[in-house]
Amino acid sequence: MDADGAVHTPDTESVQRGDYPLGRSLYLYLNLPPGEALPAPERAFLDLVLSPQGQETVTALGFVALPEATVVRQRLDLGLGP
User: Which of 22, 26, 35, 50 has the most CB atoms within 10 Å of its CB?
Assistant: First the structure.
């Protein structure tokens, strides 16, 4: 139940929107100076994680995949292309 008294079920949409209060994000931090390219191993890893296959694996393991808009934004921010 949120501050307004609304109940949010633990479904994919509620978690992705941030409405479900027990949902938590997983953050990956990169030690990369601004303007430098990702080293090949990190680039390959992040490309896999942010690929459709990577997001399917996340779901198959029982976690909630990232919203498509977030995947696209992250891929562009990392220079991985859409």
Answer: 50
